[in-house]
Specification:
Blueprint lengths: L16 H15 L4 H18 L7 H9 L5 H4 L48 H41 L1
Helix pairs in contact: 1-2, 1-3
């Protein structure tokens, strides 16, 4: 299923950043999970990295069309996903053993009375006030997320422009 607007584009033309971004979103949807937006960013980064590291065999317009029709993500892209905090299995921690001579026993000091934990106090806020403050926070979060999405879009546009200028 090739879109008519892409029918006249040469198949050996190198894929653009927008095509890679759309492909990243497609792969994120195929990958599944609850964070499709975040995974689309990860896949886009993987595709751009692949494109930069393989200038002799870049992703072409034909490749993009074939990937869009595919039902699975190519293994070479899935292998590159890394999760924060993921430790490599080959790295082992070394422990340095230090021998020390026994110290003289400490003299007991006057002990302070231990503080009793503070009891939790129930809120005096009414249910309606709590709902209003919760809704206010939700609205503020939504506004921040919209601004973040706008800034990310602007950054993507700037980055595409810089890449295009560097490519000239």
């Amino acid at each position: 299923m090739v879109n008519e607007t892409y029918a006249n584009v040469p198949g050996n033309k190198v894929a653009t950043y927008k095509q890679l971004k759309a492909l990243g979103f497609k792969f994120a949807n195929l990958h599944g999970g609850s964070n499709t937006y975040g995974m689309s960013k990860v896949f886009t980064a993987i595709l751009v990295k692949y494109q930069n590291e393989n200038p002799k065999t870049p992703i072409t317009h034909t490749d993009v069309q074939n990937f869009f029709e595919a039902k699975e993500i190519p293994a070479k892209f899935v292998k590159q996903i890394k999760v924060k905090g993921q430790a490599s299995k080959s790295s082992k921690k070394t422990v340095k053993v230090v021998k020390t001579e026994p110290k003289a026993p400490k003299t007991p000091k006057e002990s302070k009375p231990t503080e009793t934990p503070k009891e939790s106090v129930a809120s005096t806020q009414s249910v309606e006030d709590f709902k209003n403050s919760l809704n206010s926070l939700k609205t503020r979060i939504t506004d921040v997320e919209k601004r973040q999405a706008t800034l990310e879009t602007k950054f993507d546009l700037l980055w595409a422009f810089v890449q295009e200028e560097l490519g000239k």
